[in-house]
Amino acid sequence: MVASALPCAEQIAQLRDPDVIALMAELGALARKVAATSSLAATDIDRRSARELGAAGLAQSNGLRNGPEFVQKLTGSSIAEARKLVHTGGLLETAESVVPVTGSEPGPRDLAALEALPGGWEAPIAVAVRNEWLSVDQSEALRSGLGSPRSAGLADDWRHAALALIDAAWASEWTAEDLGRAAGRVRASLDAKAADADASARFEARSLKRRQLRSGNWKWDLELDPETDAALWGPLSRRLSPRLGGPRFRTEEEIARAAELDQDPRTNEQLLVDEFTGIFAAGVAAEAAAGAFGKAEPHVSIVVTTDELRKAKDATPGDAAGVAWVGGGQPVSARAALRSICTGTFTPALFDESGAAIDVGRDQRLFTAKQRRAMAVRDGGCRWPGCTRPPGECEAHHDNPWGESPLNRKTETKDGILLCKFHHLTVHNHGARISRQGSVYFLHWPGRPPVPLSSKSGVMAQLDVATRQGA
């Protein structure tokens, strides 16, 4: 059945549920036997390719540097998988030296049998793998999580720990990942010095790298130690719960936030980026307000021509919206440039069609910290209908487009409102406008009637009530 089923999907599809379960179990047993034989062969190839054999080694005489590389070539696997085969074969050899194979089936799991084994601390792991009481991945996770004892005097502690972890893995049906994490915790408890060294090594391994992709985007590679990761991930995951599988919200505000997240069209990955950059931008703004950057506040120039700004202003969704340049060299849409100029994220540089500079902007954000505080009190958060983002997670939108007239480049509090990044992008990307009549702001969506944008501020609600009562 196994031989005929492997190439024939139609036959498998016609099997009854009990039969397909039995087939999968049979195939699994066969795969484990094949893997065991492969690992023994891989270990033997590695032994025949030992460094001390030099050019006479098996791998070296076939043009490879070592045993795992030769195994990789022969099997077509990854180098990591080849190394795992070599290591697993070593475990099986250890098991053979402790308890030779008798030809009979090993029987059900038996912790007492493992406890009675002679040999070193790894012997129970080796025999458990040979007897198929642990998978190869589980054994790898257990060994890497526990590590090796720093001295012979700790070997008994390691053996007892390995046995206890094997027992727990059986009882709780742990995956390899579960077992590896548990083994790491046990290691920290067994050897405090090793735990300190491990923690120090993890901290020293921290890094942040960035590289540009062919698309023009930038790829960031961030490695953090567990403590720093918790400090960073905690606020992010809390903001996106329950989209990320966190606890469901309970208060009315939290329930409204959860409903907003459920309806948000962005992917979790996009939401994480937007949350992260929003928190980072808020931190930069706070540091700048405190004078952390001195007079040289961090900025990047964004260069755009009057014609491209006109395209961005007049374009409808789907139309070409003009091009601007970040730092003079990286193309972005002129709509994105307008939003970035609007928030003051970049220093604008406006050129006419002859190449003459019309406005080179200012090396500061358009709205001062004092103005932002006033807007926060007045707006109470993002003014977009139904949005619950607080002021600290919002950007300041300039109601009068910067590129239309030099008169629009003033920074008056009354001509700006708070929008979260997502809705700020929505305004610019869809050709929407925001206008003001007295103290009332309106959203002008193309082809739709104006929508008033209500404040979420308690004090503004209080003033409205007082005004109506006075009337």
Model description:
This protein has 471 residues and is an alpha+beta fold. It folds into four domains: 1-98, no CATH class; 110-204; 209-289, no CATH class; 301-461, no CATH class. It contains 20 helices and twelve strands. It has helices spanning 2-5, 9-13, 17-48, 58-61, 67-75, 79-98, 111-115, 123-130, 136-146, 155-172, 176-190, 192-204, 226-240, 252-263, 268-289, 306-314, 334-343, 369-379, 421-429, 458-470, and strands at residues 207-212, 218-223, 301-305, 323-326, 330-333, 347-351, 357-359, 394-398, 416-420, 433-437, 440-444, 451-453. Strand 10 and strand 11 (440-444) form a beta hairpin. Helix 13 (226-240) packs across helix 15 (268-289) and helix 17 packs across helix 19 (421-429). The protein is elongated, with a radius of gyration of 32 Å. The model has no long low-confidence stretch (mean pLDDT 81).
Major sheet, described briefly?
5 strands, mixed
Number of domains as seen in the coordinates: 4
DSSP strand (E) fraction? Answer: 5-15%
Unreliable runs, pLDDT <50, ≥5 residues?
none
Mean pLDDT: 81
Q: Quaternary arrangement of the chains shown? A: single chain
Q: Using the alpha-carbon principal axes, give the shape.
A: elongated
Query: End-to-end span in angstroms?
Result: 88 Å
Write the topology of this structure.
Blueprint: H1 2-5, H2 9-13, H3 17-48, H4 58-61, H5 67-75, H6 79-98, H7 111-115, H8 123-130, H9 136-146, H10 155-172, H11 176-190, H12 192-204, E1 207-212, E2 218-223, H13 226-240, H14 252-263, H15 268-289, E3 301-305, H16 306-314, E4 323-326, E5 330-333, H17 334-343, E6 347-351, E7 357-359, H18 369-379, E8 394-398, E9 416-420, H19 421-429, E10 433-437, E11 440-444, E12 451-453, H20 458-470
Parallel strand pairs: 3-6
Antiparallel strand pairs: 1-2, 3-4, 4-5, 6-7, 8-9, 10-11, 11-12
Helix pairs in contact: 3-5, 3-6, 5-6, 6-8, 9-11, 10-11, 11-12, 13-15, 17-19
Domain DUF222: 167-379
GO molecular function, one term: endonuclease activity
Protein name: HNH endonuclease
